[in-house]
Design brief:
Largest sheet: 4 strands, antiparallel
Strand content: 25-35%
Shape: globular
Number of helices: 8
Strand order of the largest sheet: 1-2-3-4
Structural class: alpha+beta
Distance between the termini: 12 Å
Radius of gyration: 20 Å
Length: about 325
Amino acid sequence: MCQTRPSRAKLGGVDLALGDLVICCDVVLHPLLGDAFVICDRAGEPLTAMSALDLDHPHEIPVIAEPAKLPPGSGALLLNRIAERASGPLRYAGPYPTPALYRALARSFRASADEATFTAGVLDRAMRLARDPVAVEFTPAPHRRVEHRHGFSELRDGLIERVVLDGISYGEDGYTRLVDGSAELWFGPTRYARVATFAPDGTLAADPQPIPPLASELVGVALPAPLRAALAELVAELVPAPLARAARDVIAERTIAWADLGARIARRVDSGPGPAGFAVHAGLWQFIAPTGLAHLAVALAEALAPLVSQTIVAELPARAAWPR
């Protein structure tokens, strides 16, 4: 059981176990969220907090104080549970309408507007810790989750829309693809690896195959400053407009290095007390650069833009600690 302050009320009657999480339904007072539930891991250790709501009859999309602290995939599981129990369209009334949140919501809801509309005020809302609703409605359209020994599949309308294998998501971008029931890794026009195949019901047809290591002399080499400067402009066009200026600074000022990342195309690199840098998959150079440097630049920008958005929001001034 989570250790919280004495409860002021109880919503939903009992705590909710959901995948790797336990939502503790004793209402506590949170400095950002107001009335809130504490989210714990299965051992009862607090991870973060979410706005309090009736989980059996949700009236809004919950605000999670620090979503990065949730185990991979657990936030989407919570959103899908909300979609299953909601009786009509919901709105998000929180300070972080990020691209990552929109894409997570799109797996369990149908949005009334596009990602650019949802994220248009992200910086302003984050800086003032906004709690008024964003003017985008999300109509419940939950997926069915099928667990397997290496992760899970998500099915909607009888089709596999997304699978997760050993922590890697397939079906959400042009690199980790779902092709005729197979999870595959692609670099531009080149299929680099077929990782696993799935039956129509979402179960694994065979165990995943290891992704071959990439033999490249570029691994470990940093991108030169002139290339980062060019990338900064491209990334600025891909992030929500309010983040464009900060995105240019992040790309131009931080280290970006080539790496062999397996099925990941890019990731943040926290390398000490300084600001986080980035690693990008050397396969982008090996397989996309021969088709033209302009194609490579676009591919790099598309790989980095989501991470840059997450980094900017995560590095906003620290918020007060939630109750333990």
